[in-house]
Amino acid sequence: MVQSNTTIRTIKSVHELENVRACWHSWQNHPNSDIDHFKLICRLRHATVSPHVIVMECDGQPCFLIVARMEQTHFEPSIGYFKPIKIPAKILTVVNRGLLGKENDEIAEVLIQHLWSLLVSGEVEAIVFHNISEHSLLLRNLMRHGPRWWCEKLPTWSTHWAMEVPKEPGFLLQKLRSKHRSWIRKKQRELESVFPYRISWQWMKTFDDIPDLCKRLEVVAARTYQRGLGAGFSDNEEFRQRLSLFASRGSLRVLILEIQAEVRAFWIGEVYRGSFHSSATGFDPNLREYEPGTLLFIRMVDELAVEGVRNFDFGLGDAFYKSRFGDKSWQETTVRLFSPSVKGFVLRSSLWFFSLLDGVGRHFLENFGGLDHLKTKWRRLLSTSRHEIKEE
Question: Is residue 214 a part of any domain in this protein?
Fold first, then answer.
């Protein structure tokens, strides 16, 4: 219960974050909201004005944190993958898995009142909760008590998949029908026949040279559809330092497919508090017919099983293989609140308009069975091929 001796304060400097390290560390459950990772992102991203961590204290001790960054950035409503406009805005960005502590309805109501006061005062023009879980009491209270027009009340849900990893390797193939097992083994043989004695699979748990690794991965990442969307791995300072951070803790894992000593596919993730969290993946589009993503996935899960990891978190985004292999899931959504001002009205109206167009388009394509086909075609168009496979 929220009592009269409950207070809210805000941490707006990286140095002050150390004051709540103990409770933050005990509550963090995902690499994205890890305190050291958060400090790193605040330092590296140019859009970040400052940290903005909201601390609720009960009897003088932190009982709940909202992990957020104050950003001078752009608001970009979208239609599918297309983002037609950019509107400059000062946005409070609540990071994915950034609600730390034990929630209850009373805490949620007080926090929503505080967030609304930030919008009313003009301190921020929008607040964005990224990928908040359907199980969050804060989300439920936002839907109940958030201001009708200024809070997004009809969220678009996405499914987040995870998978239990048994103790014995080889379980993924055993779960498949014999026809599918034969198909995957056939793809493995085809790949090996095209590149005899030139294929190498590397499972990496220790790292001597992160910059060199990033340089090698970039050759593949630059040609993926994720790069066309502005997502996925990129050889930049942020990725180098993020990978270095988790490598220094012994939690970084990378699986690489090399052909003739050149990286042609990869998968990156972190083992964090007993779970593997998928971070980025990519493969040479010229290898598509051999299904390198599936071959990587099966090998990687076997390595994790041997290591003793018991949970595989597929991460954000929609893909067929996630629903195919995942055995547990939950719904997530991104929710936005807007200031009751002219700027807030412009931002809210643009979101409403483009969300309407997106919804109509999706409904039309789903009725005619073309949504998945369009996604596949679009992703392949975004994959740029600069050379063809050469058989020798």
Answer: yes
